[in-house]
Amino acid sequence: MLDSLMSLFGGFAEAVTPMNLLWVFVGCLLGTAVGVLPGLGSSMAVALLLPMTFALDPAGALILMSGVYFGGLFGDSTMGILAGTPGQPSAIATSIEGHRMAKAGRAPQALAAAAIGAFIGGIVSAVVVVFFAPALADFATNFGPAEYTALALFAFVATSSVVADSVLKGLSALVLGVGISLVGIDSVSGTERMTFGLPGLFDGISLVTVTVAILALGEVFHIASRIRRTEHLTQTPETGRPFLSRSEFRESMPAWLRGTAIGLPFGVIPVGGADVPTFLSYGLEKRLDRNRRDPQFGRGAIRGIAGPEAAGNATTAMAIGALLALGLPISATAAIMLAALRQFGLQPGPLLFDRAPELVWALLASFFIAMIVLLILNLPLASVWASLMKIPAPHLYAGIAVFCGLGVYATSSSVFDLALLLVIAVLGLVLRRYGVPLAPLMIGMVLGPLAETNFRDALLSSGGSYATFFSSPLSIILYIVLAAALVYTMIGRLRGRRVGDIGGASASADAEAEHAEDQKVS
Amino acid sequence: MGSPPTSGSTQTRGSASPGKKIALTIYAIIAVIAIATATFFSFSSSSQAGDLRAGLTMIAPAGAGGGWDSFVREQQQAMRLSGVARNAQVVNIPGAGGTIGLARFSTMNGEASTIMATGSAMTGGIELNDSPVGFDDVTLLARMAEDYDVVIAPVDAPYDDIPGLLEAWKDDPSGFRWTGGSAGSLDHQVVARLAQEADIDGKDITYIPKSGGGEAIQTLLSDTTDVASTGYNEVSDQVEAGRVKALGLTAPEPLDGVDVEPMVDQGVDVVMGNWRGMLAAPGITDEEKTELLAMLEETRNSEEWKDALQRNSWTDAWMTGEDFEDFLAEDQKNTAELLEELGL
Fold this sequence. Notes:
Oligomer: heterodimer
Number of strands of chain B: 10
Structural class of chain B: alpha/beta
Shape of chain B: elongated
Number of helices of chain B: 12
Distance between the termini of chain A: 70 Å
Number of strands of chain A: 2
């Protein structure tokens, strides 16, 4: 452990040169800027930068990329909070409450809570990576398909609080999400599912396309459909100081820590990056909130931002650690970083720490620097970003619409995907109009494939015996927790329908507000 | 919209005086015209045949970070550094085993300045997806590199070589769990070939597809699978680190610096390469084809490309003209047979 510490200091010595500091700064700025555009998430930013890194020395290149990576993640949330149009699945959970805060004129506080959450999650997991990477590698091997199946089921239940406000609508959105995730060629049997013979659907519909379509472009359509009817879209007055007050800070602290704790383990297990933990953290915060005297969720709860944001960044930093220590690319961005490491003749994996220690430690040190730079960059900038809200809605949302198309086209260079984007966005508009919550749809898309693949893998592996699902202590524990949670919820329900929080999931609150307004108009 | 200052100015623009508005409108018109002209000329110049080296576009028919993507980006890099083409661009057109890229490419009649990567996965993709377009619809350029699959098992597995593995497999054909790349991929075909060698019916193969070597190893270590077939370069470090043991390579002969015995040397006649090559658009002239081939050959002979081969554990497999055509026909025939065997 002392060795690790010494090596880390060596890494800092390597990373803290004026040139590298400049790179990390440029990276954070670029990443944030790209991340702000819907559909152009952190993985896109890193991919675009990949050719540029050829010109740099390995340490500089990796440092630049980690800046871009974390900057991109942060940018995603920024736009989600300000305009309600998250560009990446991992920013969805943050934007639900975040956008409500922004609408209530508390955008700078929401951004600050997100920035600090990202900082805490990132720093804590960077520390964990530094000291425990090898132990985590061993931990990950305990997870087989049976455990993942249990985990996916657990996540379904744990995130169900976003569904529970309107059971029928929530469940139909969830089923719709799972349905969309099934499109494509089945990986085990090679059978086409719901592709209608269109080659463009053979690889399935990407989560990013759906996120951008449903949440970003769908929101644009929704705003456009109401632009002459609602006046409050522009010029939201800001209230409070442009930073967190002490009570807000105290309020967020537990959420930051809980989010980090949820996010950490997800960095080493391949369940699709930061999406699942952000939803889990959101679900937990919402559940805890209900039991408080003065529930905040639905009105813009700062904890609904602090938790998911910390969870997302904790996972991300861990995922890069897992990449270095295991050679296992957990997320798309990690896969591109892997490609970048290979450019320098480095093969991530168990030998990397022996072969190129100075680089690994420089990279880990640059994590710390990137986090700090991002915090310095974004805390003062929070109110500047928040002034984006002052752009008249037509201009702002037209710009967002353009970038939605651009982002989707840039990743696939296919007109088909643009058409798909439009079709799904219209679907998103319809869902919004009828008050169907959208978060369950996204959760279904993330968790559906996870549950399905692992369920089948487990059965294939056991030769068709269902006993495999209960054969390890880990999965049994997960099922027990699951059963306990279900029983607890049911007892709660039987005691009489408690008044939940004010809004439903994402759209239902808007829909209610809309109805009220419609009635006023008529 | 990317940065706060511009957004701020948009806002002031909204409330600007009429005179300012006119100035802004004129400015906008000029900007649009300038950008449109520039775009038009950059397109028209890049499609001029005589200047292939100045504006080459390379299509990777896969997403960023994948196998074809790195193959194309390594070429781009080697071309730039060795001066073959200083300004080559890479475009990703992912989907359906490369056949979406192929379908798009087959419509770019006569566009010599665009070339596309191809390889084993595309042969498989065409066959698996019953693709309406095939290699006949484009111009074949060259096979450039190859890499090989390795069969790996957990360190405590009771066999150390391929014959031992096949014996164990025969004892319990369907209870033996394989893993590797997606269904129908080269990894899966290697398993089908080994099944043929062991007289095991293709229907009895239990195969759990994963997205790459890293994930395949995770399933070995969590005892979800017994043995994996995957690209050697994806798992070489894990083998060297002793996390898994390698049983045999699908290479025709031992590879430099690789301490794994080829299957043929173990008496199991399985030789399968994961080849990668380049295609040109249909309908290009012979001069253009010669020029493109010359560019590829210069790239292949560059020091930078040799480094790239080494870095990625690729083997040089340069092949053009009729040899390449014959090889491709043979590859398609074998692939079709193996996929049939697998019931795909």
